[in-house]
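Quick check before the chapter quiz. The format below is the same one you will see on the exam, so make sure you can read both the input and the output lines.
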Amino acid sequence: MHGNTSGLRPAQLKSLGNLYRRRIEPGRVGSPELARNLAELSDDVRREVSVLIDRRGRVISVSVADAKGAELPDLRLGENRLAGFHLLHTHPRGGGLSKGDLSTLFLRRLDAVSAIEVRNEGQPGLVHTAHLTPPGTVGEEEDWRILDPVPSFQIDSFDLGAQVSALEEEMARAGRTREAKKDHERAILVQIDQGEFDAEERLSELAELARTAGAEVVHRELVYRRHLKAGTLVGAGKLEELTSRAYHLDADLLIFGQELGPAQAREIEAATGLKILDRTQLILDIFALHAQGVESRLQVELAQLRYMKPRLLGAGAQLSRIGGSAGSAAGGSIGTRGPGETKLELDRRRINDRISFLEKQLESVAVRREERRKGRARNDIPVVSIVGYTNAGKSTLLNAFTHAAEEPRRVLAENKLFATLRPTSRQGYIEGVGPVVLTDTVGFIRDLPKDLSRAFRATLEEIGDADVLLHVVDAAGPGADTRYEAVNRILEDLGFRDMPTVVALNKADAAGPEALDRERERLSGVPVSALRNIGLTDLKDALAEAIGQVQRQELAQREEAQVRAAEYR
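Here is the expected output.
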């Protein structure tokens, strides 16, 4: 027996306990006798009384509470099954099914929920019943179908068993369709707007991240919240709405644009029953998907482990079990006493060991990279580092500059975020300068997860060895100015903001004339189209001028140093 039973007399408690002995015909909502017992008890205790009935017709739970407060088994439901229970409860003040009743039906995926109106002197009145509708149904009730109310003596007239079988068959059919398309998870995106001017742009970027990761975006939700809810960010009502939308769009993945804490992710997952990801996890997954070289793979794994480590805390009781099994007088619950480490401690230690190993591996890689950089410096060949926001067209521009149309010189260039994760150098030629080394770097992104930023810092520091930066801006995409500033913030953090820079306004052929003129004036950029080889001559001229200026400054510094050395001697 569950719920608040304080203040009940022993006779009332006994009557409630007797409900466990009631059985109804399998596949039915209830029986006239059970309806009468519930109504009488509800009138006697002056509260709502709920019983949970399994498919064999047995009462398995009795609660002195409404539908939301009724005690329900904490089961992990399969995607193609209902809970296997239906809820029958009373409404002492009469009336049909409440919003709380229908929410409980949907969120707990009950076979059905029914409410018995209680009339004067504890007589049962009309019985209201609702059941879920199949995924993808577009009807009057959307998530559920409310049946016409019937008198209590007809409560067993509805064939609930047949309805449940038909509904689970529809769910299984949808599940088979989803399994056939399992390489493309269907995702709902949630971006919280706290008053930022670029909230919609961030939602679009989240959609591009999801697409790059291989998800099919079926819905985008921009939620305005000045103040975030501590546990669920968006509140229980919005989560219920998102769960409903996921049910009808056959989506199994909910992606948040904000980083979620471990407790928040667990609470949202428990409330929705969906797989939950945040933006950081999505970016980590994309990096893992695209990592090709040894260094990239090491850096991505290091970032994933650093992200995972704090999330072991509170990950469930299974992580706190004792690994040792020998007897001990030490305290603890039965089955957990003994020497040894907890599983949580073991997992932490293994992650720490792996992090230490990866850091040493990356140190050796950094040494080899440093030797290559020194070799280029001895050759006295100018170096141009290509930087820019992810998917701005850096790799395409590198291929166009070096005429690398085919392998092995061709650099991977795809219309995806983070297609390039390791710096790639190719030799090109600029009129008036001669041979130059062009280095394509990993794409930047705003609010780059700190674990990834730390892992790729050594890679990005190679930018500092360049003579000139070539900052590629997607002139055709929305928010070119905010993406330009996001790249500059990262360069400033690395100490490279004041390096000589040439701005290339890429994808100029797809940009609007007014927007292109505005960006050209604001950024002093050179309009180009790397894909169509438009404007590359002007861009090379701008690079030649910037490199020549750097070389003249270096020459002046060397001559000044020689003069000072001569004066000293």
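If your answer matched, good. The mean pLDDT is 80.
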